[in-house]
Amino acid sequence: MGEKSIQKKKYILETARKVFVEKGFKKVTMKDIVEACDISRGGLYLYFESTSQIFQEVMRLESEETDDVFSDKITEDATAADILMLFLQEQKKELLRREDTLTQAIYEFYFENQPGRKNNILKKQFDSAVKIIEKLIEIGVDNGEFYCEDCQGTARNIMFVLEGLKISAQTIGITAETVEREIEFILKYLGLEV
To answer: d(Cα 105, Cα 111) in Å, to the nearest integer?
Structure first.
């Protein structure tokens, strides 16, 4: 793919992301994306076959960008506790962001496309996050930063708490105090002073 094609595809994905943020996943059509991008229908179909394909690519890019932002903030001398705190603070920012979020679209996409499928994207992301947090907790325990008897169970619990907060943020609303209270509970459970 040439540079011009790469830039065009990037433009389509950035524009489509805005459409998904505004409308969710279920209501977006290829026509919506064509109109938002101000390109021909054929021009869009050169790159993508469906809204589902576009959305999956948008989610992949979103995940990469989040990983990059997080990685860039980790210093060489960061401890396991520092990294966990940074992770939880980034989660807090995401949970409290009212605008420009794909959360609703992600859940709509999941309910429409993923139930029963072996390649469940959300489950893969969840399981991957659990493994990363588990390893981080194990390092913290080895270094004497954390106290934890069940690193995997604790990591899984942290992800369930965060996932529940995401749903609450989209449905009933949550406050900064609510998120902070849950983060404090996690840290206390690991033996960290808050």
So the answer is: 10
Longest C-alpha distance within the chain, in Å?
59
What is the spatial distance between Cα 121 and Cα 161, in angstroms, rounded to a whole number?
19
Number of Cβ atoms within 10 Å of the Cβ of 109: 24
Report the candidate in 144, 149, 162 with the shortest Cα–Cα distance to residue 87: 162
**C-beta of residue 4 within 8 angstroms of C-beta of residue 88:** no
pLDDT digits (tens, 9 = 90+) for 42-73: 999 999 999 999 999 998 888 887 776 667 76
Residue 194 and residue 182: Cα distance in Å, rounded? 12
Pick from 193, 81, 86, 85: which is nearest to 144 by CA?
Answer: 81
